[in-house]
Amino acid sequence: MDTSEQRIKIALQKSGRLTDHSLDLLARCGLKFTQSKDQLFCYGENMPVDLLLVRDDDIPGLVSEDVCDLGIAGLNVIHEKRLALHQNGSTALFDQIYALDFGHCRLAIAAPEEADYGGPKSLQNTRIATSYVAILEDFLQREGVDADIVYLSGAVEIAPRLGRADFICDLVSSGSTLAANHLREVQTVMKSEAVIIQTREPLSEVKQEWVNRILQRLDGVLQARESKYVMLHAPRSALAEIVALLPGAESPTIIPLDGDNDKVAVHAVCRESDFWETLENLKSAGASSLLVLPVEKMLL
Ligand code: PRP
Ligand code: ZN
Fold first, then answer.
1. Strand-strand pairing, 194-199 and 33-35
2. Residue 165 and residue 246: Cα distance in Å, rounded?
3. Range(s) within the chain of domains with CATH label 3.30.70.120
4. Which of 12, 76, 130, 177 to probe ligand 1 with, by most ligand atoms within 8 A of CB?
């Protein structure tokens, strides 16, 4: 089972906003790796799963061409590849499995601070610099706007200053790159976050089993991340109201309290990342001894 043909290959961004989160997520799935000297390859020590660290823009292609079985990349590069292939009359041979809830950003149009913008029509007959030609083309077409797309593979934000474009269309996360270049975000083109994709090429039975295992663990990590284990005491008289306040809880456990007939203990797994408001509402409804614990792993 250990020839390189039979090992799962996952493509990850080699350095950028998704790298640390992607590695951390796989570590949480129990995968252990040794990194090669050039840091472009990670050998899976405890599972037949290796990582290839590449440019994020190359990830959809590597998975579509079955060089890698799985890949983690931003929806922006995945959608760009899908549209680019489509515009060439071919199809992307990968499937999107999950959104991973990190790397949130947006592909947006930005203009020099002093420029006017009154909606997509303001882009008519202008020049827009971008690395996302296919997505931008698709957007302009849907808006019925004619504009010149200036392709740049990087440093798109300096194009207006160099006189090469009137607008740019680039990823915005914190917005600090735009601010540093005196640009103003004027139009969202698409929202993005990290997603995991799988090749459409059928895998051997053994490989598919490993892929299923990794995906199941990933799902478990993602579910655990937004889940909390909640314990509280509730007056019997307010039990229904309190249980109804627990977000996403499936049939909580109700436990009698020794020597107290008026109250019960309620234990439940709840789905909510920020629990403060619910906690306050539970308390107002009569709950006491509230305890919220993080959930580390989950297999449903
Ligand atoms: C994007 C984009 C900007 C920057 C914006 O690059 O091209 O340079 O991030 O982020 P900010 O709003 O937080 O300043 P990315 O990290 O995707 O690098 P890449 O284009 O080289 O892959
Ligand atoms: Zn990139």
1. unpaired
2. 52
3. 227-294
4. 177
Range(s) within the chain of domains with CATH label 3.40.190.10: 4-102+194-224, 105-192
Ligand 1 mean position to 272 CA, how many Å? Answer: 29
Give SS3 for 82: helix
Nearest CA to ligand 1 atom 7: 171
- Distance in Å, CA 184 to ligand 1 centroid: 15
How far apart (Å, rounded) are the C-alpha atoms in residues 88 and 6?
32
User: Is the distance from CB of 172 to CB of 106 less than 8 angstroms?
Assistant: yes
Cα of 128 vs centre of ligand 1, distance in Å, is: 17
pTM: 0.86
CA distances for 211 relative to 46, 74, 101, 214, 235, angstroms: 14, 20, 20, 5, 47
Could you confirm whether domain 227-294 is CATH 3.30.70.120?
yes
Question: How does pLDDT run along the chain (300 residues), one tens digit per residue?
Answer: 456 778 999 999 999 999 999 999 999 999 999 998 888 999 999 999 999 999 999 999 999 999 999 999 999 999 999 999 999 999 999 999 899 999 999 999 999 999 999 999 999 999 999 999 999 999 999 999 999 999 999 999 999 999 999 999 999 999 999 999 999 999 999 999 999 999 999 999 999 999 999 999 999 999 888 889 999 999 999 999 999 999 877 789 999 999 999 999 999 999 887 788 899 999 999 999 999 999 988 887
- Judged by its nearest atom, the ligand closest to the C-alpha of residue 105 is 1
The top-level CATH class assigned to 4-102+194-224 is alpha beta
Architecture per CATH, 105-192: 3-Layer(aba) Sandwich (3.40)
